[in-house]
Write a structure and sequence with these properties.
homodimer, globular, 49% helix, Rossmann fold, 6-phosphogluconate dehydrogenase C-terminal fold, 8 strands
Chain lengths: 283, 283
């Protein structure tokens, strides 16, 4: 790995840059960002060696596309146009169907690997990058058979060196399942934050009463709307399905309370307690 | 502080016991628990010096009542019957209205202080106790004027020594606000867990895709149904109000998505991002 381009020098792209630099100190990493302030900052805080443009892509062994998923759909074909025959392009978006679809007939489809590392924090921008963000995390790879074998090998070697666990999945089921275990969590958290903020308008001191439980449950409401709006748009159908199921469950819980069925309220919680076992191992 | 009774040797009662023992190593702490296994375990792991019964209350300088809130309503009058004229009884329940109401005319009302330390974890039982659980946490005291002055002083000295910040509030607004910043979080988390578990029935591998965001958002779904069902029952009206507001916000978010109003989806999140500033200082 000699030349790497990171398109999008935020939390995920920046963490890739730091992780790669740790493994390959002599590798030259070029940061490409539509926001010149971010590109500049990424250089200043040593996320990347220099800021660049798509001109640099032709010399890259690896291009990591880490921008909002609507921008990925727009930019990925151009990135593939620019990459050399031996260059590998990886995207890391939280949706996979539209992204895989847009390049399915691209002449350089075999230079592309669709990935989704399940890693992140509620922070964003270059300063949010962490060199060990991907250690022990799951990385979901879609349509691996459509990527040239030697480029698959290059990608898997890097993912392994970064400490990721690999899972393979088709784009459609990826988008369906990730709506439940990631996208819905964000909406539940944002709307919880909204509900409490609305109440707080009239009650200035309410947040003095908030503890670690509230903080944990609304943590994701700090997330970037710039990143999440395109994800919700691309995964619209699946997310509406999960939201509908979630609202029905909440409504049912409220109905049980309104009809004073507290044994059923108890069972709703007891039956969900097995989330303990399920969460074992997720940090 | 020479003699302390802890009624309920779980997470909160046990953490009080450990905190008091750290401050007053010579203090004798007696654990009283309706579950003999918990009382026995509390002795074995040195949460308390010995297991006892209500017989011990008459010699106590301090009695901490840390049992489910329905049990508190049943037991608190008996505990006050048993306490000496100089004994202080504190409850630590997550609801305050019914608890204050049940003892309002008790002849020993002045021996009682109603408190709600905003501290806890998703774990329960004696082994969940932590000596520093209350450090830096808010403790809400209700109807302080109804407690004898020298017993107020005894309580506040202990709370200060344990590192708590004190806030005063009336029971009714306490129960209303805590529904928003604590009780609702638990329901949103339980129902999120339920929604995802229901989906997972047919999809065994879905949880391989779950990351730290999901874990954070459903953490409270590990909480004890034995403790939370009585809280929901006692705070029924307020909780139904918060749930109604939360469901309406989720429904509105879904409506925006269904009508493809993504600028509004963006604004819903952007406007909620100020939870960042609000959460500063809550850990």
């Amino acid at each position: 790995m000699k030349n790497v381009c990171i398109i999008g020098t935020g939390l995920i792209g920046g963490s890739f840059a730091l992780g790669i630099k740790k493994l390959y100190p002599n590798c030259k990493i070029i940061g490409i960002d539509s926001n010149p302030d971010h590109a500049q900052m990424a250089v200043e805080i040593n996320l990347v060696d220099e800021a660049g443009s798509y001109e640099a892509i032709k010399d890259a062994d690896l291009v990591v596309v880490a921008i909002p998923v609507d921008a990925t759909v727009n930019e990925l074909p151009k990135v593939l146009d620019a990459v050399s025959d031996d260059g590998l392009v990886i995207d890391v978006g939280s949706t996979k169907y539209d992204i895989c679809k847009i390049v399915e007939d691209h002449p350089k489809r075999r230079n592309f690997l669709a990935a989704h590392p399940i890693a992140g924090t509620e922070f964003s921008g270059p300063r949010a990058a962490i060199p060990t963000l991907f250690e022990g995390k799951t990385n979901i790879i879609c349509e691996v058979e459509k990527t040239a074998f030697k480029l698959q090998e290059r990608a898997l070697k890097l993912f392994n060196e970064m400490g990721m666990r690999i899972r393979y999945m088709h784009p459609a089921p990826h988008d369906k399942h990730i709506a439940f275990v990631s996208h819905l969590s964000h909406i539940s958290s944002f709307m919880l934050g909204k509900t409490v903020i609305d109440e707080e308008k009239n009650e200035k001191d309410i947040f003095d009463m908030a503890g670690s439980g509230f903080a944990s449950t609304v943590r994701l409401a700090k997330s970037s709307p710039e990143m999440w709006t395109p994800i919700f748009k691309q995964n619209r159908e699946n997310i509406i399905g999960t939201l509908d199921a979630y609202i029905k469950n909440l409504q049912h819980f409220m109905d049980l309370m309104e009809s004073d069925k507290y044994e059923d309220v108890y069972l709703e919680m007891k039956n969900t307690n097995r989330i303990k076992d399920i969460l074992n191992g997720i940090t």
